[in-house]
Write a structure and sequence with these properties.
167 residues, mainly beta, three-stranded antiparallel β-sheet, three-stranded mixed β-sheet, 2% helix
């Protein structure tokens, strides 16, 4: 498991108290001790090698965006994409070239190239990556000084009456 190249890989699992025949499985969940990084628990997913499976595959960007060079920022909206394929065809990652992505442009799921034997089961053409322009900082509003008020004393209301003296 530690030497695997991708997130999804096939294993032949033999259960000791079982009938002794190997089962083809994938790792579904892996619990790791946070400090020592030792494996604590592994959940396996058994499947038929002749049927397609749905798995999430990480998205990796390649290239330097034109929009980033102009001051924009790349936002990866979907860090993983669901794919439908045979277990032996599961890609380790989905690479998306963002070299032509300008500010305001986006890559949608229908724009993502799929390898042979890999499908993206989607109902809606959702956004995967976008290049956004930098947000402007709002300038603090300056207090407006009205003409004619300069030099005049403004009357203020107080809770106690003010007595005038005749000196």
């Amino acid at each position: 498991i530690k030497k695997s190249e991708g997130a999804h890989f096939l294993l032949n699992l033999v259960v000791e108290d079982g009938d002794g025949s190997p089962c083809t499985v994938m790792v579904k969940d892996l619990a790791v001790q946070p400090v020592k990084r030792e494996m604590l628990h592994v959940d396996f997913y058994e499947f038929d090698v002749k049927q397609k499976v749905r798995v999430d595959v990480p998205v990796i960007t390649t290239g330097h965006s034109v929009g980033v060079e102009k001051g924009g920022t790349i936002q990866i909206v979907r860090r993983e994409l669901e794919v439908l394929c045979y277990p032996n065809k599961i890609p380790s990652s989905i690479e998306i070239d963002i070299s032509d992505l300008d500010m305001g442009d986006a890559v949608h799921i229908e724009d993502v190239p799929a390898e042979e034997g890999v499908e993206f089961p989607f109902d809606v053409n959702f956004t995967v990556i976008t290049c956004v322009s930098p947000m402007r900082e709002e300038e603090p509003e300056e207090e407006e000084v009205e003409e004619g008020l300069e030099g005049e004393v403004l009357e203020t209301e107080t809770s106690e009456p003010v007595e005038e003296s005749e000196e």
